[in-house]
Amino acid sequence: MLLISLLSKSKDVIESKTSGTVTWKQKGSVWQSIEQEFQALTGCHRETKTLRDKYFNSNKKAKSKFATNKTNIIKSGAGSWQLQAFDLIDAQIQDIMGPQLEGLTNNYCDDCSDQDEVVSEHVPYANNCDDNEVVFNNGKWSSYTPQQLKRPKTTKLSCTKTGQNKKYISVNYLLMEEKLNFLKLQKEKFIEEHNKKKEIYQKKGSAVRFTDQCIR
After folding, report:
1. What are phi and psi of 163, to 5 degrees?
2. How many whole angstroms from its chain centre is CA 7?
3. Is 105 exposed, middle or buried (0-12, 13-18, 19+ CB in 10 A)?
4. How far apart (Å, rounded) are the C-alpha atoms in residues 135 and 52?
5. In order along the chain (216 residues), what is the average pLDDT of each group of 10 residues?
6. Does the reported pTM lie above 0.70?
7. Taking phi first (over 0 means left), then psi (-120 to 50 degrees means alpha), and beta for anything else, what does residue 12 get?
C-alpha cells in the first residue's frame, strides 16, 4: 500500500509517544508532506485527516489479528482454532509499530528460549567416620530396661567433628553470589538509563520553553 510505504519513512515521528508542542508540529509537518507526496504519485487529492484515519483503521485491524492469534496460541482447552492470515499491509504496519504490535518478550520466564542452562557440579562428600560397621545380633531383649538409655554412647557409633574444608564450597552459594552480582549490574544499568532519559527530558523541556518564549 502506497500510504503505508510513505509512512514507513517517518515512522519514528508518527509513532512517537512524546507529547509536546514541538512533537505535534513535527507530526503535522510530516502528515502534510505525506499528503503532498500521495497526491503527486496518485493524482488523487486526499486530505490529511482522511489519510490519518485510514492509517489508524489499518492499525486497529492489524492489532486485532495479532491479538487473536496470540490468544489462540496460549489458550487451553479442547477444540481447534483458526490462524488469522496476514497480508502485505499487516507486515508493513508490523515493521512500523514494532513492539507495540508484537509485545515485549520476557527473558526471565519459562517461555524464554535463550535461558542459560545451569549444570550443578558434583561436590565430593567428606566422610570422617571410620569404616568399621557395628552389627547388633538379634538376641533376646527381655532384659532390656529404660535405664539402659542413660548409658553413654559407644565410641564405635560416634564420629569426630572436624572443621569445614574450604575446598568443598556449596555450588548454591556460588550461584547466589552470581545472582546478586547480576542484580547489582541490572540496578546500575537501570539508574544510568533513568538519568539519561531524565537529562533528555530536561533538554526537551527547556527547548519547548524557549520556543514558547520566542513565539510570544
Report:
1. -70, 155
2. 29
3. exposed
4. 90
5. 78 80 86 85 85 85 82 70 75 76 66 56 57 56 74 72 57 78 88 88 74 66
6. no
7. alpha
Q: The C-alpha cell of 24 is what?
A: 505535534
What is the SS3 assignment for 109-176?
Answer: CCCCCCCCCCCCCCCCCCCCCCCCCCCCCCCCCCCCCHHHHHCCCCHHHCCCCCCCCCCCCCHHHHHH
Q: What is the pLDDT of residue 106?
A: 66
Dist CA 51 CA 35 (whole Å):
8
User: Widest CA span of the chain, in angstroms?
Assistant: 115
Least Cα distance to 94 among 125, 58, 138 occurs for 58
Question: What length is written for the chain?
Answer: 216
